[in-house]
Amino acid sequence: MSRFQAVVVGASAGGVEALLGIYGQLPTNFKLPVLTVLHLPDERHSQLAEVFERRLNRPVRQARDKEPIEAGMFYFAGPSYHLSVERDFSLSLSQEERVHYSRPAIDFLFDSAADAYGAGLIGVLLTGANEDGARGLASIKRKGGLTIVQDPAEARVAVMPQAAIRLQTPDHILSLHGIGCLLAELERSTC
Amino acid sequence: MSNSPADQSLQPAAERHIDIEIRLLIEAIYLTYSYDFRDYSGASVKRRILHALRQMECGSVSSLQARVLHEPTAFMELLQYLTIPVSEMFRDPEHFLALRREVVPLLKTYPSVKVWIAGCSTGEEVYSMAILLREEGLLERTIIYATDINPTSLEKAKQGIYSMESVRAYTQNYQRAGGTRSFSDYYTAAYGNAIFDSSLRANVTFADHSLATDSVFSETQLVSCRNVLIYFNKGLQDRAFGLFHESLSRRGFLMLGSKETLDFSAYSSRFETLTRPERIYRKS
């Protein structure tokens, strides 16, 4: 049986290009669900899924409350709601306070996904100008999941990957290209 | 930073049994105080409890449980963390605009109207609804039931006092929601606060009511329940939809939050969609 069941990804400033870089490398039959929190001003958020769907030419969807997570689907957190994974592998939204001025917060997605998937989770943290996600990535590692951080030297803004590396040593520190290759490889080895 | 709600880090020993401890705490709350959080969405409940742990300076969920069991005041404190009082007036203005354009003309055909605002929190939705109904000439023949499980929130709702800072943001919402007057007509500013006109709540009944444990108390023509159901699991969502369905008169209206739908619910076939983006449904 496969080890990995899902990928969670967090990014902030510079994140759109970084995500397009990684997701563009993944094969169209990539089977793991990919859940993304990208910090954006609320008004730019709403079109995110459509933009990525067009650019990647694969199904991308804004996450909906109580929706069961589907294999191979790419989900983006929508504006002004936190996104979590429930123990039954469905999605839930909430409007708790902002974390590091952000809602959706990467930490909330990562923490809850770590609880749900344990060792079956891959966590990826990319470029960004605040420290959201570092703590969540540490949760993923603690629960036995695999953690990947973008090389701060390559990141458009290094604050977010640096904060994650400071808090715990990730399994991999890689360029965007390296992250794309590794995800593709890990997914192949899961089936 | 250690007080950040995202801080889920506990000592490894404390983390080992955290899921069991949370279940026991929720069960203890239910058995002692009849507040039922057993079917709330787990991820959010866990965060709220961990946040409460730090705020209430408890070292473990078990020690919080002991306090909650023995001290009703500790339970009331915990309840403030468990319920999420994030609200604003005319939140999602386009929803209120749709309510005004699509629903109000039909409500006007009734000799009297009953509205249920379920999960009214600190009252922002109640005053928004009352203002809209007044501008449409309906408020005087409407009864609004505003219910919540949190007595502290209900008390705030009855006061109708909000900070001027937040009211400035609500003013924009009000205008985008199709408001026909000056928003400041509805409140008196004093000491940095806006005190809302008490005549707005003349026909409002504030009441303690739980969608998890209570039953229907009145027939209504419009139910507004926004940003409450996202905190429930599917089973509890269906219970709530069942109550709304039972309460609504024939062809009554249901208004949900911008991210809430009947789509994944057992009740989806018993309502029709009136305006999809604004989440207004009508009992079939």
Automatic annotation (TrEMBL), chain A:
Active site: S12, H39, D132
Highest taxon of source: Bacteria
Keyword match rRNA processing: no
Name of the molecule in the record: protein-glutamate methylesterase
Record bears the keyword Coiled coil: no
UniProt organism field: Pseudomonas coleopterorum
Entry's EC annotation: 3.1.1.61
Catalytic activity: [protein]-L-glutamate 5-O-methyl ester + H2O = L-glutamyl-[protein] + methanol + H(+)
Domain CheB-type methylesterase, residue spans: 1-180
EC primary class: hydrolase
Keyword field: Chemotaxis, Hydrolase
InterPro entries for the chain: CheB_C, Sig_transdc_resp-reg_Me-estase
Lineage, highest ranks first: Bacteria, Pseudomonadati, Pseudomonadota, Gammaproteobacteria, Pseudomonadales
